[in-house]
């Protein structure tokens, strides 16, 4: 039987030792994770966005600021302010940034999975729709043109945490002698016996 050259045998032994050492190190690393570098805690995106929004919005609120003591009174105040084209009075009836941050957003289903809508984005959407809506309403019905007769809300009150939303509300008024029923604002928010408009979104 032919014998392998001494140099070849030595090379084979060295290669085997290297393979065993690498395999052992890999198994050791797999069995013992690095205890000095634990994974960072996962912060829900919506929670982080709300924290940043609250920092900019200001101090917490315990309830709605201003508004009205009943839904009927709120809608009547809205109708009178619109009829007079009283923009400051209309603005005082609507949700502000602090109320959104501390009352509306935490209770909104859109702030929770599977939506987790960013607080800034939700507020910007409300504000943009509200601005478009009130501009159109003032142009069409401001200056004594509303002819207010009453209102109706066909939707059931929707309880979300500490707030209740009254949806699908429509103003009943007269236009050229005809009775018209149409939405001129968005949802009504109720908290602690006070009522405000979420915004002035409408389909005008």
Kindly give the count of domains. Answer: 1
Number of helices: 6
Strand order of the largest sheet: 2-3-6-7
As a percent range, the share of strand residues is 15-25%
Low-pLDDT parts are: 1-35
Shape: elongated
- SSE run: HHHHHHEEEEEEE
How does the helix and strand content classify structurally? alpha+beta
Overall strand count: 7
Q: Helix share of residues? A: 40-55%
User: How can the largest sheet be summarized?
Assistant: 4 strands, antiparallel
Kindly report the average pLDDT value: 84
* Termini gap: 101 Å
Instruction: Evaluate the radius of gyration.
Output: 32 Å
Can you tell me about this structure?
- With 204 residues, the protein is α+β, with helices and mostly antiparallel strands.
- The protein has one domain.
- It has 6 helices and 7 strands.
- The strands form 2 sheets. A 4-stranded antiparallel β-sheet has the order 2-3-6-7, with helices on one face. Strands 1-4-5 form a 3-stranded antiparallel β-sheet, covered by helices on one side.
- α2 runs antiparallel to α5.
- The chain is elongated, with a radius of gyration of 32 Å.
- The termini are far apart.
- 26% of the residues are buried.
- Residues 1-35 have low confidence and may be disordered.
Question: Brief description of this entry?
Answer:
This protein is of the alpha+beta class. The chain contains six helices and seven strands, in the order ααααααβββββββ. The longest helix has 26 residues.
Give the helix/strand layout.
Layout: H1 6-31, H2 45-57, H3 71-83, H4 87-92, H5 97-107, H6 119-141, E1 148-153, E2 158-160, E3 163-166, E4 169-175, E5 178-182, E6 188-191, E7 194-197
Antiparallel strand pairs: 1-4, 2-3, 3-6, 4-5, 6-7
Helix pairs in contact: 2-5
